[in-house]
Specification:
single chain, alpha/beta, Rossmann fold, 2 domains, six-stranded mixed sheet, 10 strands, 41% helix, globular, binds pyridoxal-5'-phosphate
Length: 364
């Protein structure tokens, strides 16, 4: 990219690899191009010779990777003449749908489970002006309703069953190959509906099979590792589950929509699925913020929690290059963050130079 060109978004950057017509009006907020950050302190802390990168998707315009899919889904919806989009959501999809809809000048309807949306996601969706429909039911119920409603109302589904969502999200794998010069050995992801693990695998396969376009890229592909919350782990159970529960609300899903695609990614990559307790997920979230200065939301930390466990047991061997996707920003869920730090009491002192000096010198 030349110095005089400013970054406009992933559709412009990877247009040749996306099903976008020349004349399409691109609905973009400058998504993608997120940092791939090498962890410096955690590998030392665990005493293992591994290289761990985090793909910090929390720096997308609405704070999660959902923006990658949404720029494509909304661009396509507008091109097809749609005036309204709809999704079921655990929060981040609704925030992204709302933002891209208002950008496009169309209406967004979002079905969310009452009381189970993290505060930041609700605040965003309200501010972007989407029509919020709360249901007395979980995400899976909302998803079933959204699939039915399209036969009764003129709305376009923008959940990850919309194939353009996956097309947009696959660009994260392109960016990783562009940054590293090759695919990593292992790619670790949190898994809910399994759209994202599907998209990354598609992206890795597509990019590594077009070596002409990118001579430096080999046919290397990563082992895909999908991690779920123990209370919401249909891929570990081997079947759909009905009452998923986890503090990581973004992956509180019992009926994943990309079930077959995700199993295919696991098989083709010789990867695996595993689950983590809420305690393990929260510990990884705090480890990352407290030792690297990177704040992700709980669901995102499942990728690192899983990677660290599998590095610890040797399932991921020393010498490996690992990428963990941090799917969403820590600011999305301030309630869980503050709850995690409830034993950290800020000191309150007199507003004098002496008192401030004492407070500093006492802790140095
Ligand atoms: C949507 C989401 C996930 C799960 O992604 P899937 O594609 O549903 O597997 C994980 N983390 C966060 C923060 C999300 O918003």
């Amino acid at each position: 990219m030349s110095m005089h060109q400013h970054y406009t978004g992933l559709i412009e950057r990877y247009r040749a690899r996306l099903p976008i017509s020349e004349s399409a009006r691109v609905i973009s907020l400058g998504e993608g191009n997120t940092p791939l950050i090498e962890l410096q302190n955690i590998p030392k802390l665990i005493g293992k010779d591994v290289t761990i990168y985090v793909k910090y998707e929390g720096l997308n315009p609405t704070g999660s990777f959902k923006d990658r899919g949404m720029t494509m889904a909304v661009t396509k919806a507008v091109e097809d003449g749609s005036h309204a989009i709809i999704c079921a959501s655990t929060g981040n999809t609704s925030a992204a749908a709302a933002a891209y809809a208002v950008r496009a000048g169309i209406k967004a309807f979002v079905l969310i489970p009452e009381g189970k949306i993290a505060l930041g996601k609700l605040a965003q969706t309200l501010m972007y002006g989407a029509q919020i429909i709360q249901i007395n039911g979980n995400f899976d119920r909302g998803m079933a309703l959204v699939k039915e409603i399209v036969d009764h109302a003129p709305v376009t589904i923008v959940n990850s069953i919309n194939p353009f969502r996956i097309e947009g999200q696959k660009t994260a794998a392109f960016e990783i190959i562009d940054a590293l010069g090759d695919a990593p050995d292992y790619h670790c992801l949190p898994v809910g509906n399994a759209g994202n693990i599907t998209a990354y695998w598609q992206g890795y396969k597509e990019y590594s099979s077009t070596i002409d376009a990118l001579p430096q890229v080999t046919a290397k592909r990563p082992v895909m590792c999908g991690y779920q919350a123990a209370g919401a782990a249909p891929f570990i159970a081997g079947k759909m589950i009905d009452n998923p529960e986890t503090v990581a609300t973004a992956i509180r899903i019992g009926h994943p929509q990309s079930w077959d695609f995700a199993w295919n990614a696991q098989r083709e990559s010789n990867g695996w699925f595993d689950s983590l307790t809420d305690e393990e997920i929260l510990a990884a979230q705090k480890l990352l913020s407290g030792h690297e200065g990177i704040f992700c939301e709980p669901a995102s930390a499942a990728s690192l929690a899983g990677a660290l466990r599998d590095i610890g047991t040797g399932k991921i061997p020393e010498g490996s290059k690992i990428v963990c996707t941090l799917t969403g920003n820590g600011l999305k869920d301030p309630d869980t963050a503050i709850e995690q730090c409830k034993n950290t009491h800020p000191v309150t002192i007199a507003a004098t130079l002496d008192a401030v000096k004492k407070a500093i010198l006492d802790t140095l």
